[in-house]
Amino acid sequence: AYSTKEDSTTRPVGRYPIPNKKDMPYDIVELMEEVEMKTGFLPNVFKAMSHRPAEFRAFFAYYNAIMNKDTGRLSKADKELIIVATSVVNRCPYCVVAHGALHRIYSKQPALADQVIVNWKLADLSDRDLAMLEFALAVCRADNITEEHFQKLERHGFDREDAWDIGMISAFFAMSNRIAHYIDLRPNKEFYTMGRVP
Fold this sequence. Notes:
By secondary structure, the chain is mainly α. It is built from 9 helices and no strands. Helix 3 (53-67) packs antiparallel against helix 9 (160-183), helix 4 (76-89) crosses helix 7 and helix 4 crosses helix 9 (160-183). The longest helix is centred in the last third of the chain and has 24 residues, at 160-183. The radius of gyration is 17 Å and the shape is globular. The two termini are 29 Å apart. It holds the Pfam family CMD. InterPro entries: AhpD-like (IPR029032), AhpD_core (IPR004675), CMD-like (IPR003779), Uncharacterised_peroxidase-rel (IPR010195).
């Protein structure tokens, strides 16, 4: 489903039809054009979610609420690393590839996301990052979350609101991973090379 062969470009983005641009609501077209202008291409998740306009709006509104907020101690790179680590567990090629690319761009570390994809426990992570991913992965796996999980985060400078942010990103992307799975969402080829060379 995520082949990088040249002939894979003729395959559809996913299992569901993508509406014609002229048939889409104006606000969705406007957002898609803004994203495409900013990045140089339109990530396939926008195309796929446009199949259901109301769900598109809800999905991206929630994405923006957790990923683009200005408060808390999580950087953009932290958030992307959480998505990469949890999407590996959820076996989601789209999110691993797309958010690995975003992590490389925000962190300016071209190898770290790849290390986390292979084995996060052996990656070049700080103790803070390890604690953050350990909590995110506990939420991802639906482990029994205890006071000890929160205390460990606090020892590494995260408060309860940061724990909420980590948990919410992990939970939201568990949903996103499942959506990508059943609709057979393929990563854009652009994601594979983004941020690899500083």
